[in-house]
Each structure stands twice: as C-alpha cells, then as structure tokens.
Amino acid sequence: MKVNSAIQSKRLAVLGASPRFESPLHVGRPNVGSRERLFARLNDMLDRRWFSNDGPFVHEFEAKVASITQAKHCVAMCNATVALEIAIRALEMTGEVIIPSYTFIATANALQWQEITPVFADIDPATCTLDPRSVERVISSKTSAILGVHLWGRACDTEALEGIGREYGLKVMYDAAHALACSHQGKMVGGFGECEVFSFHATKFINAFEGGAVVTNNDDLASRMRFMRNFGFSGYDKTSYLGVNGKMTEACAAMGLTSLESLDEIVEVNKTNYETYDRCLAGIDGVSLIRYDKHESNNYQYIVLEIDSEAAPLNRDEVVAIFHAENVLARKYFWPGCHRMEPYKSLQPNADLLLPNTEKVAGRVCLLPTGQEVSAGAIESLVEILESAFHSAGEVKDALRKKNKEASHTGAR
Ligand code: T4K
Q: What is the whole-number distance in angstroms between the Cα of residue 249 and the centre of ligand 1?
C-alpha cells in the first residue's frame, strides 16, 4: 500500500487535502501464506478429483486445528455461522440462550434462525466479554444455555460462567471466532465449555477463504455434529439426525492448511503492528488500545482503539469519518450492538435498559488496520492523521458538520 508522500503532514483530507493513502487500507485484509504451497495443494486436489465431502485436506486441517487448540475433536465446517448453528442444535438448546449483545450479529442470528431467543446480557467494560453478574440477572425458567464470546481473542471469565452453568443446570459453549491460538489461564481456547467455535473467514488472521470449525472434547457431540454437517447421513441411504450442508470444501481446507503453516509468522507481524500502534499512540489524550495479557498466548489480530470523548477533542464517529476521508477504512465493530439491529431491535425494544456497558463500549470503539499488508510507516502515518485532527479539532468539527449537512441535503448516506 502506498502513502501519498506529496502531502504535508498537517493537511487533512477532511479539510480539503488529497487522501493520505492512495488506495484503501482495510481492516480485515486477508493474510496470504505461501502461494506455491497453496497451488501445489490445489493441483493435488484436482488430480485426486475429490473436492468436498470429508476429503483428505479437511481431515488434515481438522487434525492441525485440534492440535493447536489441544482439543480431542475438530469438526470443520463451511463457516463459523453454520458451525454455531450446528453446535447449538447438537447441544439441544431450546427456549432462551444468554449471549452478549456486543458481538458480531452471527452469534445472535445462529440462535434466532432456529427460533431460540438470544437474551442479551451486559459485558464487563474492562474485558468486553460477558459480565457473569449480568448473566445471572437474566436467567429465566426458559434459559437452556449460555453462549459466551471470546471477543478480540480475550477469553471470557470461563470459571464464573461455567460455575453459573453448573448451578442452574445450563449448557455453556463459546463463540471463539476471534480466539484461535489464544490461551486462558495457560490453557488453549478450544477446551472450554461443551464446545468452542472458530472462524476461518477471509478477514480472520488465519483464513480458509471461508471456513469454521467446532472444537470439543466430547466424543458423542463431535459424532453428532459430523452427521449434522452432512445432511444427517450416517450411512448410504440412512440419516440419523436433521442435518444441513455445513461441509468445508477441499479448496478451503487447502487454503486453511497453507495459512496455518504461517501462523507463527502472522502472529509475529500482528504483535509488531500492535506494539508500533501502542508506541505511536502513547501520550495522545483520550485514546487507548485494548490490552492483551502478556502471560497468555494471543494472536493480536485486532487493533481496538477506544476513544473517550470526554478526554479526547473528537468523538469516535468523528475519528472514523476522518480516517475514511484519508482512505483508512476504520470500523466501529460491534456498534450499535445486536440489540439495536433487526430483528432484535423490534423483538426486544427495551433490551438497552440492561446493557449500559455495551452501549458505552460500542460508542467508543474504532478498529484499525493490521496484518501482513500494513507497514510500520503506514501505522505512523495513520497515527499522525489522528494527532493532526486532534490539533485542529475545531476546524475538523466544522468541516464534518458542513459535510454532513450537505449529505443530508443531497440525501447521501
Ligand atoms: N462470531 C464472531 C464473534 C464473528 O466476529 C464472526 C465473524 C462470526 C461469529 C461468524 O464467522 P463466519 O461465519 O464469517 O465465519 C466481517 C466478516 O465477514 C466476518 O467473518 C467477521 N466476523 C466480521 C467481524 O467481519 P463484515 O460484514 O464487516 O465484512 P466486510 O465485507 O465489511 O469486510 C471487512 C473488511 O475486510 C472490509 O474493509 C473489506 C475487507 N476484506 C474483506 C474480504 C471478505 C478484504 O479486504 N478482502 C476480503 O476478501 O464482516
């Protein structure tokens, strides 16, 4: 990616200068491992003429993921959303399931799609994961399970959630879409609860183009999920369960295997990027990066900036608008929270009353680009944009107000 060198550091695109970056800098730009290894695998696949349905690359991929997560079984799927749906069905969840609202919409949809109500509990603002006290408050006679999310790769308070599960007779599982190669209290994510679900989507630090997996130590659960991902077939002309097509293709497994071979290298890049951001942002009032516990394994795949609008001269939405003008496509994940998105907004119009921390955190978060495609120079330039904008906050606010007014007159979004 190219930085526009002709631009004076003080000029901002929002004030009329050309964007600092010539081409868009994305959050979630895919990492690419060895092309040679990938093409060799794809050639093997073509020669074998075995493209899907429990192929050899899928088996190898499952074995590698099971080994990284130190779990007994890995059941690979076409994506994490379907993996969540299958795990939820295989665990026979019913009625209501408690989840955080501060997560990607897929966590909630995987339940609602099966006519199970996601009940939103609040998060602990320090960890951005389920607050166990809030979970206890929303348990009802219809609650069948708790589905925690290891957001940004930082694990939930698994001891407290599983303690609540035992006390109230609830199943506990985790959406670990962000947490491959992360640990909690020295144990790899993958071994907590009944099962854990990983995503290998293109935007994840390890990708299989599209992909997901459920990891578990439960033999019976693993076997049920294997049938369910293949229409329920348990033999030729025989089904044992209601199933769906949740299979991972051989091409996706080939990409996944190739990505996994670069895991250490990609984590190192992410960690270096994180440290560069941290160093550059030090001393800028009102902004902070979320922290990763140095005593645990982390994948550092998300650069999560929190902007405290009481201490910073600009608020989160203004910062995102400034970055977008510069071609830095910062994201507000997971604003505004699932409870403020359809269908939940209509189905549960008062959910916000129980979610003060979710609303607060969702309003101050800004995700910044990282991964193999982002250089130290780009990070320095990006932080310089933020500093310049903070220095000219009054002028920037006026320019953004004017731009918004013009957009509302022309009907633009
Ligand atoms: N649970 C959690 C907690 C999750 O975060 C997710 C997914 C899931 C479950 C479900 O996992 P999957 O079923 O997807 O396996 C993106 C991803 O599509 C989604 O996988 C991810 N979380 C979520 C956090 O981000 P969008 O709607 O924001 O994607 P989009 O199209 O706006 O792309 C994000 C950025 O990445 C853009 O700036 C473009 C860039 N990009 C994207 C793709 C696909 C590329 O540069 N190249 C690409 O190939 O959801």
A: 19
